[in-house]
Amino acid sequence: MTTVTPASTAAVASELVGLCREGRNLDAIAELYAADIVSIEPIGSDEMPAEMHGRDAIRQKNEGWFENNEVHAVEVAGPFVGEDQFAVRYDFDVTNRPSGQRMQMSEMALYTVKDGKIVREQFFYHMPGA
Amino acid sequence: MTTVTPASTAAVASELVGLCREGRNLDAIAELYAADIVSIEPIGSDEMPAEMHGRDAIRQKNEGWFENNEVHAVEVAGPFVGEDQFAVRYDFDVTNRPSGQRMQMSEMALYTVKDGKIVREQFFYHMPGA
Questions:
Q1: Which of B113, B109, B110 is nearest to B84 (CA)?
Q2: What ipTM does this complex have?
């Protein structure tokens, strides 16, 4: 069996967490996401399907989220590192601009790394009071 | 500053995952959970509060879950290891006995380790079609 040595999962994880702690989520997408990344949310809608494909679509989704939400604080815990996957916990304190509603939410993201790039992200939610 | 060297987070994580892969979840609770563990689910009810305290309460919750659900398959991914926390992903294929409804669900658990025991577990859900 031949294997290709990928960039270390831990290195990609550390870089992602560092950028997100600085609020540089869009830089993280540009630098660390594979062009054909798959992103999976727990719940989809007509405008925002649960499964999205491609770095450009994910970047637009993130830009839209930051436009719609005023971020008062975000805490980034981790990374939690496995073999070809790692997890990160995010705690947000945000105000949704259209509704004016302030809310706190926690989520965990599970990332899959291949050849030094993130090829898959999947989100798991914890919403107090939901 | 004095520090107490805890049993490695990775060692506890590996032990938990090994037991859960064998379906020995109750053994994992008995062996690895601190007596005063805190368990946090995303959503609570009158019968099952979101936040529960104590190993005995958590064991009863787990026993109840296994009584109410027929487990066809479970996949345990990870562990994903951080400093004093680690994450595990679980994918269940179960039939809820009271309703007869079969469903697939994914969750991530984030565990906090202190002095070689799990002192906190928090669950994050991904339910396709929810």
A1: B113
A2: 0.72
